[in-house]
Amino acid sequence: MSSKLNEALQSSLHGFVVKGGRESTLAFAREYGKGFLCTGDSKPCGSCPSCRLFESGAGNGSNHPDYIEVVPTKKTSKASIKKESIEEVIDEAAMTSYLENGKLFVFQDFDTATPEGQNALLKLLEEPPQKTGFLLLTEKPEAILPTIRSRSGFIDLGEEEKRDEELRHRSLTLIQKVAERKEEAFLARHMVEEEKDRLQDVLRYMTSYLRDVAVVYATGDLERIDNKDYGPMISKQAEFMGESVFELYEAVLKATRYIESNVNKELAMEWLLLKFGGLKESDRH
């Protein structure tokens, strides 16, 4: 994902159709959003006010007032993005951004948008306000009006989804192994070396996973987690890590900021793995 993300952030285009599965396109959108709204030199820098705000709370941009996700609504038997929702976006886009560094609108399942809604958005894509971006996420780009597709860039995540899923599995399994057996911290160096060009993706998966562990530890509610396919493992880790999950979550965010600030990647990851391996017995439930 990193190469396509960097290309999109460096592009002068203000809108993209992003093709792929729901989870992968949304993960891409949130990483793009953090970089798009970043005020630092390297994007995302991880330390500017915008990046810190984006990472706060659930860490998915929900606390950032200039990052807006639009989801299909269900008034009849089928959920869709209706013209009324697009008109709300048009009104919001005309307003000054809160942090004065632009706004990003992300449309989930944009192929469900009604023809009236798509035509309304077309006018905005033709004459977008300054520093305003749009991501149209979809599994079926052919369902989007040709006029919209012709005015947008196109990003196909399909080729990378399988590779991303393999990396996600390795990243989440790594947390489990290192947290339960500190000796694994030394064995994990091999993976860090193998994936040195994708360490930001590794940390993104770790952040999402630990956020889920923290949610389950605090609430016991598996319905509120993002990584539902890892539900049993997350429940086990919530019981095992206890309150230390909050410290580990902050450590991953700190390692992410180190790497985004061009600190030596290997040293940042070794520090993080030692943090996991140093989980005290008294913290383990």
User: Would you tell me the overall average pLDDT?
Assistant: 87
Spans where pLDDT lies below 50 across 5 or more residues:
none
- Strand order across the largest sheet: 2-3-4-1-5
Give me the Rg, rounded.
Answer: 20 Å
Number of strands: 5
Q: What is the CATH architecture annotation of the largest domain?
A: 3-Layer(aba) Sandwich
User: Which shape, going by the Cα principal axes?
Assistant: globular
Domain DNA polymerase III delta subunit C-terminal: 167-276
GO molecular function: DNA binding; DNA-directed DNA polymerase activity
Keywords: DNA replication, DNA-directed DNA polymerase, Nucleotidyltransferase, Transferase
Protein name: DNA polymerase III subunit delta'
What features would you describe in this structure?
With 285 residues, the protein is an alpha/beta fold. It folds into 2 domains: 1-156, P-loop containing nucleotide triphosphate hydrolases (Rossmann fold, 3-Layer(aba) Sandwich); 165-277, Up-down Bundle (Zinc Finger, Delta Prime, domain 3). It is built from 13 helices and 5 strands. It has helices at residues 2-10, 22-37, 49-55, 83-93, 115-126, 146-150, 158-180, 184-187, 189-194, 199-219, 231-241, 244-260, 265-277, and strands at residues 15-19, 67-70, 103-107, 132-138, 153-156. A 5-stranded parallel beta sheet has the order 2-3-4-1-5, with helices on both faces. Helix 5 (115-126) links the parallel strand 3 and strand 4. GO terms for molecular function: DNA binding; DNA-directed DNA polymerase activity.
